[in-house]
Amino acid sequence: MNKFRISNDQLEVEFQSKGAEITRIYNKETGLEYLWNANPAFWPKYSPVLFPIVGGLKNNTYFYQNQPYKFNNRHGFARESEFEVCFQDDNSIHFLLAQQEETLRQYPFHFEFQVQHTIRGNSLFVTYFVKNTDTKELPFSFGAHPAFKIPLVEGTAFSDYYLQFNIAENTGRYNLSPEGLIEKTPVPFFENTVTFPLSKELFYKDALVFKTLQSDTISILSDKTRHGLKVQFKGFPFMGIWNFKDADFVCIEPWCGIADSVDTNQQILEKEGIILLQPGEICSRTWSVEVF
C-alpha cells in the first residue's frame, strides 16, 4: 500500500492506494481536519470506495447465468483492492482498478474502474469512471462512503451540528433488517425538512437510507461555528447517512446502487440500483465536498 498527496493554496488531501481511499482532507486556511481519523476502536476506515455493488447481498450471494457468486464484504471488493496510479499532478490523482484473477472469482466481468480526485479552491471533486472492457453486458453499482469529522472545532459537540438540505425534504427512510437488507416499506421520517439536528442516538439502529431525496446537496453546519462542509452529489439516486455507534463522525454517502431488499431474487441483472453497461461503454458520476 502506497500513500499519495495533492495540494493547492487552500487544501492538502492525502490518499492510499488500497481502495483508492481518501485519508485526509486538511484546509490550510482554517487549520482544520475534515475527515475522520480511522480510529480502530470504532471504525478503521476513512472514505471507502464502493464497487461493484453498494450495500450487502442476501446471504452474501448473487446469481449470474444460474451460477452463484459470493462477495466477502458489503460494498464489493474495491475498498480492499490495491489500485494503481495512472495519472498524478499537483492538483489531481487518478487511481485505476481492472479485473484480476481474484475479482473474476467473485465477479466474472472485465472492467476498468477509475477513481479520479481533483482539487479546485477549497473543494475536492471525486469522479468514478467505469468502462466495460468485456464482450458482454456489465452490471455494477458504485458509491461513496466518506466519514466527516464531527465535531469539527474544539469547544463544540457532536449534537451542536446539523444537516442542511438544499431542497425541503418529505420522504421516508428505509430501515435495514438485521442482515443488512432493505425493508420493503419506508418509514415516515422527513416532513418539510430543510435542517436536521444530529445526534449519536439517531444511528443506534444503523444507517439512515433514502431512495427519494430531492436534494443534491447536503451541508454539515453548526450555529456555534462558521466552519462546516458541503457535499454535492447530482446524479446519485440513493443516499446513506451513517455513524458508527458513538464515534465522532458522520458519513454522507451518495450511492448509485443500494443493498439487496428483503424480498430480492438475488439475480444481479435485476438488482435494484444496478447499472447495465454495454461493451465499450463508459459511465461516470462526480461528487464533491467543499470545506470551509
Present the secondary structure layout.
Layout: E1 3-7, E2 11-16, E3 21-27, E4 32-33, E5 49-50, E6 61-64, E7 67-70, E8 84-88, E9 92-98, H1 101-106, E10 111-120, E11 123-132, E12 138-140, E13 142-144, E14 147-149, E15 161-169, E16 193-197, E17 208-210, E18 217-222, E19 225-232, E20 238-242, E21 249-256, E22 275-277, E23 282-291
Antiparallel strand pairs: 1-2, 2-3, 3-4, 5-13, 6-7, 8-9, 9-10, 10-11, 11-23, 12-22, 13-21, 14-21, 15-16, 15-18, 17-20, 18-19, 19-23, 20-21
Structural category is mainly beta
The top-level CATH class of the domain at 3-155 and 242-291 is Mainly Beta
In angstroms, what is the radius of gyration? Answer: 19 Å
Task: Tell me the number of helical segments per DSSP (H or I, 4 or more residues long).
Answer: 1
Uncertain segments: none
* Largest sheet entry: 9 strands, antiparallel
Main sheet: which strands, in order across? Answer: 8-9-10-11-23-19-18-15-16
Q: How many beta-strand segments? A: 23
Helix content: under 10%
pLDDT averaged residue by residue: 97
List keywords for this structure.
1 helix; mainly beta; globular; six-stranded antiparallel sheet; 44% strand; 292 residues; Beta-galactosidase, Chain A, domain 5
Written overview of the protein:
- By secondary structure, the protein is mainly β.
- The protein has a domain of 203 residues: Beta-galactosidase, Chain A, domain 5, CATH 2.70.98.
- The chain is built from one helix and 23 strands.
- Strands 8-9-10-11-23-19-18-15-16 form a nine-stranded antiparallel sheet, with no helix packed on it. Strands 5, 13, 14, 17, 20 and 21 form a six-stranded antiparallel sheet that branches. A four-stranded antiparallel sheet has the order 1-2-3-4, with no helix packed on it.
- A hairpin with a 2-residue loop joins β10 and β11.
- The chain is globular, with a radius of gyration of 19 Å.
- The two termini are 30 Å apart.
